[in-house]
From TrEMBL:
GO molecular function: heme binding; iron ion binding; monooxygenase activity; oxidoreductase activity, acting on paired donors, with incorporation or reduction of molecular oxygen
SUPFAM superfamilies per UniProt: Cytochrome P450 (SSF48264)
Name of the protein: Cytochrome P450
Protein biosynthesis in keyword set: no
Species, as recorded: Kitasatospora xanthocidica
Keyword Oxidoreductase: yes
Family as reported in the entry's similarity comment: Belongs to the cytochrome P450 family.
Gene3D superfamilies: Cytochrome P450
Cofactor: heme
Pfam short name (any one): p450
UniProt keywords, alphabetically: Heme, Iron, Metal-binding, Monooxygenase, Oxidoreductase
InterPro entries: Cyt_P450 (IPR001128), Cyt_P450_CS (IPR017972), Cyt_P450_E_grp-I (IPR002401), Cyt_P450_sf (IPR036396), Cytochrome_P450_Monoox (IPR050196)
Binding site for heme: C396
Length: 449
């Protein structure tokens, strides 16, 4: 259990040690971000950082995280980090301020309604089967790249189901450049560095334009026919607010880009980490195979199999605990306020990190250990303790979509293939705003049951 929390006075949060002149804690955050952030609870429940000219607070206590995330009027999306994200997402659901959020969320929620999941799952299964049909025994694959292609195909297909095979959409190439560019931009310490005419920045701008053009064409095609194709785009085009107004083409475009960006890399990273964890924990993998052999009997997983795959689901939960893809996220204080007795000035940037929370030994005993069975308990973790999908009004709208995809993909793939990372080099995360593994290779072996 975390330390009890009884704030009574208003005091200033402690500053993390080790800040350098001018740069502050930015070098530590850039060079060993995860270790640095996981060490911050030792300095307090709310810890101040200097990131060049930016002052930020890292919220380390789960109860404070809960309070912040459930008060989106006081702790809104905004600030310099969000401004960079808005360059790409526009004012879509993930980046819009609280004032616009309620309307958008109400309009978009039907697209992720529980009843829609079986339809999406059917498309997911086709894409998973299509992607793995090209695999051969003994192939060596770049695992993160393969999972990224798979997850892009799934997200694109569920958005634009009419396009028989999502792999035929040029959206993949542009999204790849844009997603990686966004991650790098969010971490750039120098203001204006993203506007320099470097080849990388030019590639990024071109990919953004291409993406705009592709979605503009798809929206026009959908609007012209007006039929519900049971995909995300149809739901977006049908959505209306309380006054009966629909989304404009620009708004639809922003939501499409938001779903693509928010859905692809997160699920791809979850799958890639799951393969490394399963390879490193053969006893869990053996039990997984037993579950899959019993339930699937050699067939791909279907939506109706999900309740019979509890170990697969726990593997996904535990992977998200150890490697939550959006591992650090921000809010801005809209007014002078306090958090747990600490003064927080208007305009302050606040950061919360699912990675930090998930690695606290007082919340998760032996936190670095991969132990899917820690989820066997029926007791839910206290709010703010386990937060791979965030919390409150801004909680991930695609949580069920993402976990369904991850469980179906792990079950279908692990039933037929063993993925063995090439020995010798430990798999490490890239430095960026998402906890994504660096490229690593693995050998595929077809399983004999
Ligand atoms: C394993 C997969 C996923 C993870 C770990 C994940 C994680 C998250 C997190 C942590 C947030 C909250 C951000 C914050 O507090 O600022 C979020 C928001 C969001 N996610 Fe996901 N996500 C996943 C999959 C998806 C998918 C598949 C989609 C869509 C197809 C999606 C769409 C969104 C959107 C639109 C938001 C913004 C919600 C709002 O502000 O109302 N996510 N996600």
């Amino acid at each position: 259990m975390p330390t009890p929390f009884f704030p009574t006075t208003r005091f200033t949060a402690a500053t993390a040690p080790g800040g350098l002149p001018l740069l502050g804690h930015a070098p530590a955050l850039l060079h060993h971000p995860h270790e640095f952030v996981a060490g911050l609870p030792a300095h307090g429940d709310l810890v101040r950082l200097r990131l060049g000219p930016l002052r930020a607070y890292v919220v380390c206590h789960p109860e404070l995280v809960r309070r912040m995330l459930t008060d989106d009027q006081t702790f809104d999306k905004g600030g310099p980090l969000l401004d960079k994200a808005r360059e790409v997402f526009g004012n879509g659901l993930a980046t819009c301020p609280a004032a616009a959020h309620r309307r958008q969320r109400r309009m978009l929620q039907p697209a992720f309604h529980r009843d829609r999941l079986p339809g999406y799952a059917a498309l997911m299964i086709e894409e998973i089967a299509g992607a793995t049909a090209r695999w051969h025994d003994g192939d060596v694959i770049d695992v993160p790249a393969a999972m990224y292609r798979l997850s892009t195909a799934v997200t694109a297909r569920c958005l634009f189901a009419a396009h028989e095979r999502a792999g035929s959409l040029p959206v993949h190439r542009s999204m790849d450049v844009v997603t990686r560019g966004v991650g790098r931009r969010l971490m750039l310490p120098l203001p204006g560095a993203d506007r320099l005419p470097t080849p990388g920045n030019r590639r990024f701008r071109r990919a953004q334009q291409d993406l705009r053009e592709i979605t503009r064409r798809l929206i026009a095609e959908h609007r012209a026919t007006g039929t519900d194709r049971h995909d995300l785009l149809s739901t977006l085009l049908a959505a209306t607010d309380e006054d009966g107004r629909g989304l404009s083409d620009t708004e639809v475009h922003e939501q499409v880009v938001t779903f693509l960006l928010a859905g692809m890399e997160t699920t791809a990273a979850t799958l890639s980490w799951a393969w490394t964890l399963l390879a490193a924990n053969p006893a869990v993998r053996t039990r997984l195979h037993a579950e899959l052999d019993t339930v699937l009997d050699g067939q791909p997983a279907r939506h109706e199999d999900l309740p019979s795959l509890p170990l697969t689901a726990r593997i996904v939960s535990e992977t998200l605990r150890l490697y939550p893809p959006p591992w650090i996220l921000s809010r801005t204080a809209t007014t002078d306020t306090e958090l747990g007795g600490h003064r927080v000035p208007a305009g302050a940037t606040l950061l919360y990190s699912p990675y930090l929370l998930h690695r606290r030994p007082d919340l998760f005993p032996r936190p670095d250990r991969f132990d899917p069975d820690r989820w066997l308990t029926t007791a839910r973790p206290a709010p703010g303790t386990y937060a791979p999908f965030g919390l409150g009004a801004r909680r991930c709208i695609g949580d069920a979509f993402g976990t369904t995809e991850a469980v179906l993909a792990i079950a279908t793939i692990a039933a037929r293939w063993t993925i063995a990372p090439t020995p010798g080099r430990p798999v490490r995360p890239v430095r960026g705003s998402s906890l994504v593994p660096r490229p690593f290779t693995a050998t595929l072996t077809r399983r004999v049951r």
